[in-house]
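Hello everyone,

My group is preparing for a crystallization screen and wants a predicted model to guide construct design. The compound we'll soak is magnesium ion. Before spending weeks at the bench, it would help to have a computed complex in hand. I've included the protein sequence and the ligand's SMILES below. Output in structure-token form would be ideal because that's what our pipeline reads.
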Amino acid sequence: MSEPLTMRSGPDKHLPDASAPAAAGPAVAFEGLSVTFTHPDGGRHEVLRDLSLEVPRGQFIALVGRSGGGKTTILNVLTGLLAPTAGRVSVLGMPPAEARASIGFVPARDALLPWRNAARNVEYGMELRGVERDERRRRAQHYLHLVGLEDAASRWPWQLSQGMRQRVALVRAWAVEPELLLMDEPFAALDADTRQSVRLKFRALLADGPARSVIFVTHDLDEAVLLADRVIVLSGGKFAADTPVPPRVGDDGTSDELTGDHLALLRELRNSLRDDPAR
Ligand SMILES: Nc1ncnc2c1ncn2[C@@H]1O[C@H](COP(=O)(O)OP(=O)(O)OP(=O)(O)O)[C@@H](O)[C@H]1O
Ligand SMILES: [Mg+2]
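Reply:
Good plan to model first. Here are the tokens for the complex, ready for your pipeline.
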């Protein structure tokens, strides 16, 4: 993953450059995935029940569901942090823990290292993977520019707004050019206007270069339909909907409005969430 787990100063030889080709196989595949947590009082909580899914390479999936429904639990399984109670899981054709170097991760907030400026934060994930300095500088500059942060490269995290910080975190994960990007409600901490503007910047990033495999967790159905190729609704431990999104206009980050087919899809997805008991 591109998120720092430990502090290091030099490149980490154990993490190859994530842009190097990984093993064959879909971006994500699981079959019969179940996760049950056992609480200290002996009570058992079945969060995911016999789920199966295949995500082809290059597809952008939005995973939607109510709070407590198990979305983050799925991401934890995909990064190898959590072993499922049952089921087979592969990420980029490998067991999840082995695929980590090819995964980028964007959390909801607080991802930046306070002692590094914006550009050096972006470079951090690449440093861990041994991307050489000139290439790190080039990618940091290129991607910061794409999200409108070219003038903020030398600012410290405390000098950036929350929306700017989230864009830096996004670019840090993106600049590693990971085979698979996992995003856990990356825009949830932003107010509605900032959220929309960051989302447009993200769409500009998506339009730049080859399609990436993305799993984007969100509460927000509009956001799911605006960004994804396919929307999956998690409800009551099961997938209640798995629907392709029709092509959108303005996918280069110039428009952020839903019309026609997309509004109909939104209504359909709202219905599939309506009776979800999770909180
Ligand atoms: N390590 C754990 N031990 C015990 N219970 C857990 C653990 N991780 C998650 N849970 C429980 O599993 C359920 C699903 O949690 P999860 O974080 O996956 O939900 P979520 O869909 O991401 O919710 P949110 O939208 O609020 O982030 C919750 O009831 C949570 O308390
Ligand atoms: Mg969560």
